[in-house]
Amino acid sequence: MILGALAAMAQTKVKRLLAYSSIGHVGYICIGLSCGTIEGIQSLLIGIFIYASMTIDAFAIVLALRQTRVKYIADLGALAKTNPILAITFSMTMFSYAGIPPLAGFCSKFYLFFAALGCGAYFLALVGVVTSVIGCFYYIRLVKRMFFDKPRTWILYEPMDREKSLLLAMTSSFITSSFPYPSPLFDLTHQMALSSYL
């Protein structure tokens, strides 16, 4: 978690930032594994489902942007003005990565840290909270770049194809609905945790 948070802060390329933040998210998921309880396994499964949907969402956007040769964070400056829907979707995904409610990322981290506190892993929960706060810096920096900074060069972004658009619609709806309506995901992961624990 510490390595992922600190390494991601220094990145200037979008894909590298997401890659290093993935290291941190694997650390969060391992908190649930380290508990060794049903609650820990369930929080791990919730984390995996939510993290997978956020990652699919983020990399679908990054792959769509690479068609217009967007590599660096600084290249995102014109996105909100030329493609506001994509910018809002990407911002929502970054806020979810950061663990800001009412998005799915907050739900994931809440269950993981709650499971850590339940099994007495107070230090792991503390490290998770601190690295989440550090992570907010570079996720919100992306959002700031898209909406408030002037672009170095104006880039005309190509429209996304239908398959990626449908994928983004499904993952984005999951990210926004998991916190207000957690029962389906909670019931599914509870059954999976019980079957794997017994």
Provide structural commentary.
The protein has 198 residues and is mainly α. 76% of the residues lie in helices and 0% in strands. The protein has helices spanning 2-9, 14-35, 38-66, 79-82, 84-98, 104-118, 122-147, 162-177, 183-197. α1 (2-9) runs antiparallel to α2. The model has no long low-confidence stretch (mean pLDDT 85). Pfam families: Proton_antipo_M.
Which helices and strands appear, and what pairs or packs with what?
Blueprint lengths: L1 H8 L4 H22 L2 H29 L12 H4 L1 H15 L5 H15 L3 H26 L14 H16 L5 H15 L1
Radius of gyration: 17 Å
Helix content: over 70%
Number of beta-strand segments: 0
- Compressed to H and E, one letter per element, the order equals HHHHHHHHH
Mean pLDDT: 85
Structural class: mainly alpha
**What does the largest sheet look like?**
none
Morphology: globular
Name the descriptors:
198 residues; transmembrane; NADH:quinone oxidoreductase/Mrp antiporter transmembrane domain-containing protein; NAD; translocase
Summarize the structure.
By secondary structure, the chain is mostly helical. Helices cover 76% and strands 0% of the residues.
